[in-house]
Amino acid sequence: MVRISIPTLPAAPLVAPSGLSILPLPQAASHLAKFLENGKGKTVMLTGAGVSVDSGIRAYRGEKGTYSNPNYKPILYHELVENSDRGDMFRRRYWARSFLGYPPVRDAQPNPTHIYIAALQHLGLAPKLITQNVDNLHRKAFSLLSPKYKQSSILELHGTLAKVHCLKHRHEQPRDTYQEDIANLNPVWNEESKEAERTGRRPRTNPDGDVELHGVDYRSFTVPPCRLCEEEKEDASMVKPNVVFFGETIAPAVRDESLNLITSSSSLLILGTSLATYSAFRLVKLAIEHKKPVLMITTGPTRADPFVGKGLEKMDRIAGEVLGKYLDEAVKTSTGQEVEDVKKYLHTGIVKRPPEVEGPRAEG
Q: Pick the catalytic residue: 158, 165, 169, 171?
């Protein structure tokens, strides 16, 4: 039997704060400016759950991060797809919890950090983005600045919660459509979801749309089959969100594209992530191996800390503060339609911290 564990990080930083971490904010922004200048418009960005905390979505790790809790047990891929009574119960548990947890993720709005990252793309300073996040917020932010933005500019390494597909025929449909199917088959659960929305008393929601419920009998929950299978008179198939579960491999096309983005880049800018998952960490390893400059702006320990001083620079600080200060100065000395677009939205974005999350932002 293959043992699958949830990636974790050491409790304390592996390295002491460097000079970059204690620079005054204007000097930190100047350092970022030099890094992007040297990138000559071919810098690739890599983001994680830390950039979405200010949109009301908890990070996986860091203070009060879900996966920092050794008692938290997410459903693994092989459990979700298991063709047995046991697998059926896993699917009931997953979809019941996700049905309640998806609306807060769906309704979340970009925060200032998302806007800053979209601005770097729109200005051509770092046009390509790889994100580990499944919340669709980078796309929302980029579409604000550039309604005709290229979807290919953003690679969602772990997929998106905004879509689902069936496993047998790969029929894809919007997540909202499947939410409607769930609501129709589960009126009691639907009423619970509406009540949570009315009162604002939603259960604790994780970045993957899962919520924490205790003492619940999931046997009362009905998981809808794929409606497209039924419409096309094909054998009904189980439905899965377009996200990568623990124990599931990333699609080869996505993996290859992520590797190609790194090899064709001039440098790598890492924002708001602990890099605990190997799919993201290997991109940093590849950049280091190809001797590409790497700058990481994030808080707390990360899996890449051993690379500090060996091709990687780290600012142990909140990424959005550095990006915002840098862009303030950058737009003062630049002209053009793209600059005007950025000025219009630069310090917009909605800050809505997750309940119970205070103080420094946790990173994902």
A: 158
